[in-house]
User: Fold these one by one.
Assistant:
Number 1:
Amino acid sequence: MEFINYEQEGFVGIITINRPKALNALNSEVLKELEATIDGINLETTRAIVLTGAGSKSFVAGADIAEMSTLTKAEGEAFGERGNRVFRKIETLPIPVIAAVNGFALGGGCEIAMSCDIRLCADTALFGQPEVGLGITPGFGGTQRLARLVPVGKAKEMIYGAINIKADEAYRIGLVNAVYPLEELLPAAKKLAAKIAKNAPIAVRACKEAINKGLDEKMDDAIVVEEKLFGSCFQTEDQVEGMKAFLEKRKVDGFKNR
Ligand code: DAK
């Protein structure tokens, strides 16, 4: 692949968007390769993903403005559809995805980070949805996900005003979980991914599904989503071993994903 690198470190997969000449902007080819990479993840052997951008300046500087500038209405819709499909695949991937935001996360960059389960960023990161300055709305879910992740008034201020925010403000409003010096970001993201990967994979996956599906439901229905997923963990080898190890006052000798 030209624009996406994939590496596996133990149970953790690392996806790097690699188009530094355009600050990792998302054109059709990048989106196509990203989708193929996500579709190709081996869920038997991979328990968490880290998503980052190549270079020291940018995570993703948005959808590719040069490519978008000449789109017809129909092509624009198709481009938006592809982006939404890829971002939704990230959001609903059964295993957790951590965004390691190493710089600009603007437009589609902010939107792809928001499709991830957890965001960590470098102290140089910049987040924003500058689309209204280009004559368009956010097109890859920005109006929806930002308004769900941060206070709605803050989301509206950022989107209507095309106001970018720095890492410390992103942390203050809860858009990111933690801020690191750039060189510490990827190691921290990998460390968190490895910590997640140590836990019972079936249970972690059930937690992701419960949280994501439950958030779309009323509480009475949401709690049933959890009930079913809770039930589904029983009689798995990892549940039996996890509880047995506790009762025998010993550590689990590696969960098996069974
Ligand atoms: N697209 C294409 N090229 C980009 C780019 C982008 N988003 N961002 C940067 N580049 C390119 C620059 O054109 C430049 O290329 P060369 O001139 O060297 O060939 C190179 O990357 C380096 O950029 P700069 O020279 O501008 O670097 P600076 O450090 O001076 O500035 C910057 C960095 C990130 C502040 C600046 O590049 C910038 O403002 N970039 C654009 C950021 C932005 O507005 N992003 C949002 C894009 S809009 C939809 C689907 C999707 C979307 C909307 C609708 N539907 C179809 C419904 C999403 C929209 C967006 O994401």
Number 2:
Amino acid sequence: MQDIPKSHPRYESLVLRERIAAAVRDGIAHETGLIAHGRGEAFDYLLGETSIPEARAAEEVAVAALLLAENPVLSVNGNVAALAADSCVALAKALPASLEVNLFHRTEQRAEKIAQVLKSHGAFGVFGVHPTAHIPGLASDRGLCEQNGIFSADVVLVPLEDGDRCEALRRMGKTVIAIDLNPLSRTAKTASITIVDNVVRALPAMTQSIPKLRRLPRSALEKSVGGWENQKNLAKVMAFLSKRLNALYV
Ligand code: ATP
Ligand code: MG
């Protein structure tokens, strides 16, 4: 990895960029992952590279849904493994939840490599390397998943998901939690709970909120999940973005 001086004003962002580039070289992320990352960067810039209150609210309700779930699964793709493998494993262990490799451009070799990355960060079992089921309505390899993992999950966390797959998972009746910096993407619009935040900030914040939420009675968690209005929260994110942009150059 290239040496980036800590004093560089965009140090954090450059480190993430280098990590994605290295992951592409190592066969963990797909080359189109570079483009997805760039789109994410642009939206993060607009947000001020910070977790806004609407993101925090969505993160907490998402953790509530995951704590209430019978079979929660965290879906991991190449970009997520490159940027936040440690945080995925930490969240999966703390909830607890299963981890499943789920790729848009799937090869068994890449799925295996990502599973190894997760295991090197302490994951015990990882679903998705040998898929046994198919998400209905998704053509070809994109729908591959595991019977005991995503296929039978009641709550699925999908960071950086594609819109089609998010919709297909919703059609299966699942609660889908998306982490997506773009509040306009189809994923953001179709998820049950959309966290408009960078995965590198969202996942650790979610893990951190677990002890507090676990102390609450189940009825309180059910109330917060049941009362969640995703479109309303997305509208607030859009209002935040337009207000911020308007205030920048006046
Ligand atoms: P959709 O299919 O939902 O309309 P898309 O086609 O615009 O989305 P994809 O390439 O399918 O985008 O998915 C990548 C998404 O992940 C983008 O919306 C991008 O903003 C987001 N993204 C990229 N990097 C990050 C990151 N580090 N944290 C959170 N979101 C990210
Ligand atoms: Mg897409």
